[in-house]
């Protein structure tokens, strides 16, 4: 088990990569940490309360919400498009290979949204709720706090193809570097995100391969 110091730096790394992604995708937008101060001043405390409640029943939820935010931001920016379901005009990102049976925490986001709507209806975007939930999750995991820039508008379309091209555990270094470079991120960002993936729980895959007439297991 990692020490508390190791956990801190892992979550700090994840905070760094999430912040870098947010700034990259939204540097042109007029976002502000005080965006809801007059229209929904309690939004941060509502998100914190809901995430803490979820954590009591699901010890993985902090890592899941943080990962959900990253998977949203890496595809067309932090617009909440990963939350959209299938419709006549939308092919959901949830069904893309990196997310299918992997991305989780959608029910918690729904609960947060309902609680926020009960306090200030029609004000806070789902994209901002996801961003706030990620920051809260990192902080509750003994990671750092940061001022979340708010004021995003929710996306109305999904990008199934781009979601299928998220960085994957079987990508080699060259492929990973290209994927990060394509969205304006560098090798430092790549290392930070890769290291931070020890925060939470990883899936294990095993395949069988033949070599010199013998079968061997190859895992990752």
UniProtKB/TrEMBL annotation:
Protein name: Plant heme peroxidase family profile domain-containing protein
InterPro entries: Haem_peroxidase, Haem_peroxidase_sf, Peroxidase_pln, Peroxidases_heam-ligand_BS
Record family assignment: Belongs to the peroxidase family. Ascorbate peroxidase subfamily.
Site features described as Transition state stabilizer, chain residue numbers: 67
Catalyzed reactions: 2 a phenolic donor + H2O2 = 2 a phenolic radical donor + 2 H2O
A single GO BP: hydrogen peroxide catabolic process
Alphabetized UniProt keyword annotations: Calcium, Disulfide bond, Glycoprotein, Heme, Hydrogen peroxide, Iron, Metal-binding, Oxidoreductase, Peroxidase, Signal
Cofactor(s) for this UniProt protein: heme b; Ca(2+)
Domain Plant heme peroxidase family profile, residue spans: 30-203
Manner of cofactor binding, per the entry note: Binds 1 heme b (iron(II)-protoporphyrin IX) group per subunit. Binds 2 calcium ions per subunit.
Residues noted as binding substrate in the record, renumbered to the chain: 167
Residue numbers binding Ca(2+) 1: 72, 75, 77, 79, 81, 93
Binding site for heme b: 197
Record-listed Ca(2+) 2 binding positions: 198
Span of the signal peptide: 1-29
Residues of the active site: 71 (proton acceptor)
């Amino acid at each position: 088990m990692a020490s508390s110091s190791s956990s801190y730096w892992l979550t700090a790394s994840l905070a760094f990569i999430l912040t870098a992604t947010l700034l990259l995708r939204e540097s042109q937008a007029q976002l502000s940490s005080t965006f809801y101060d007059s229209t929904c001043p309690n939004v941060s405390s509502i998100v914190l309360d809901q995430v803490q409640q979820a954590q009591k029943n699901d010890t993985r939820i902090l890592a899941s919400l943080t990962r959900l935010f990253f998977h949203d931001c890496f595809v067309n920016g932090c617009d909440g498009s990963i939350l959209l379901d299938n419709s006549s005009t939308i092919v959901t990102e949830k069904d893309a290979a990196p997310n299918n049976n992997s991305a989780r925490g959608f029910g918690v986001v729904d609960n947060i949204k309902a609680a926020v709507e009960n306090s200030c209806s029609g004000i806070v975007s789902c994209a901002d709720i996801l961003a706030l939930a990620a920051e809260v999750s990192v902080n509750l995991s003994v990671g750092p706090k940061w001022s979340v820039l708010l004021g995003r508008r929710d996306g109305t379309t999904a990008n199934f193809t781009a979601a299928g091209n998220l960085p994957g555990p079987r990508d080699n270094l060259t492929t990973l570097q290209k994927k990060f470079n394509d969205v304006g991120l560098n090798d430092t960002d790549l290392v930070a995100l890769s290291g931070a993936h020890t925060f939470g729980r990883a899936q294990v895959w095993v395949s069988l391969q033949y070599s010199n007439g013998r079968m061997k297991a190859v895992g990752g």
